Amino acid sequence: MKTLADLLLLGDPRLYETCSSILPEEKPLVKGWVADLHNVMQEVRAKYGFGRAIAAPQLGIMKRLIYMNIDKPVVFINPELTHLSDEMFELWDDCMSFPNLLVKVKRHKSLTIKYLDENWQPREWIMDDSSLSELLQHEYDHLDGVLCTMRAIDDKSFRWR
Predict the structure, then answer these.
(1) CA-to-CA distance for 138 and 119, rounded, in angstroms?
(2) What are the backbone dihedrals phi and psi of residue 3, each rounded to the nearest 5 degrees, phi first?
(3) Three-state DSSP class for 67?
(4) 23-29: which pairs have CB atoms within 8 A and are 24 or more residues apart?
(5) Which of 121, 123, 102, 104 is nearest to 112 (CA)?
(6) Around 50, how many Cα atoms within 13 Å sit in the side-chain half-sphere?
(7) What are the tens digits of pLDDT across the range 101-148?
(8) Cα–Cα distance measured from residue 21 to residue 46, given in angstroms and rounded to the nearest whole number
(9) CA 52 – CA 160 distance, rounded (Å)
């Protein structure tokens, strides 16, 4: 079981790598990966008081997998973002991989996410709620090796929590 000690921190070169898709033959591994993601997210919540979702590469699992747990757990396997709104908004973003740093970024207000669930069933979720939309954009960026520090609005868009 992975723990907070396994969480990759800002500067780790793996955080800048593009993840590969989860293949059908890797399906049996997903349950264990999700358990690791859940455990580390719970430890981050206990230590830092935040955390709604986590991407697999943050634990060195270089696969296209996101775990979100707000009201209930949701597993996003091989997600794709579509229908990104033209309307953008600014927010102070945070990240488990640098828990004391906030970064001001712009995100799309709404989007659609297509993915496979933990039962390998295709799903589609239209996210009109900007807080969910920005969260999934943040996690999806991790799958492409993009950190919110790379999306900072300008050189003054950083502050300590």
Answers:
(1) 24
(2) -130, 180
(3) strand
(4) 24/120, 26/63, 27/120
(5) 123
(6) 12
(7) 999 999 999 999 999 999 999 999 999 988 999 999 999 999 999 999
(8) 31
(9) 20
Burial (0-12, 13-18, 19+ Cβ within 10 Å), 66: buried
Cα–Cα dist 34/152, whole Å: 29
Q: Which helix (H) or strand (E) holds 38?
A: helix 27-48
Q: Using 50, 70 and 90 to split pLDDT, how confident is the model at 97?
A: very high
Q: What is the pLDDT of residues 42-84, one digit of tens each?
A: 999 999 999 999 999 999 999 999 999 999 999 999 999 999 9
Which residues are the active-site residues?
139
In whole angstroms, give the CA distance from residue 7 to residue 56.
10
pTM reported for the whole predicted model: 0.97
The string of pLDDT tens digits covering residues 142-161 is: 999 999 999 999 999 999 99
Please state, in angstroms and rounded to a whole number, the distance separating the CA atoms of residues 161 and 33: 29
Q: Report d(CA 117, CA 74) in Å as an integer.
A: 8
Query: In angstroms, how far is CA 24 from the centroid of its own chain?
Result: 22
Q: Answer yes or no: are the C-beta atoms of 98 and 141 closer than 8 Å.
A: no
Q: Kindly report the number of other CB atoms within 10 A of residue 47's CB atom.
A: 12
